[in-house]
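Hey, quick one: can you model this chain's 3D structure?
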Amino acid sequence: MLDNQEKYKNCFEILAEKRGYIPRKVNRRDENCKNTSHILTGKGRKGEPIEIKVDLKKLKNKKHDDNWLWLEFKNASGRSGWIHGQAHFVVFERKKDFIFINRKELLSWIGSSNKVRYDLPFVNLAKLAKYRIYKRSDKKDEITQIKADDLKRLESFQIWKKEDAIST
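Sure thing. Here's the predicted structure for all 168 residues.
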């Protein structure tokens, strides 16, 4: 019997192919693809080929709460975080699915929703990072957590279910 990790190996790529895309992983040294993990090649509305840059945020901790997503404004070295990257879409992996969202729409929502509290002091514990800016004492990163349900209202919101990758 396959465990969940093996069963869903390359799951994102399989789901992209089922939707008519040709996925390819990006070389991290490519200057034109900062904060991009994959390029999905597909057909545009008029049949012309298009390339969609995607930043896949893989599930790293099995104990991670699927209801909360991490956003990075500044990375550990103090440079612009992935929210300011070049990807067209950000994809958050969760235990049973992927949330697919337009990066610029997400950034705009963060600025206009007034949910993330820039006006309050930074917090120094990850568990306090819900809608607050979390900063580790030994790093220069600035990150926060938002509720996954908040993204459902955004026009580009899509869910790709992992079970669709294993069904024929």
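One thing worth noting: Strands lie at 22-25, 38-43, 49-57, 68-74, 89-93, 97-102, 142-147, 158-161.
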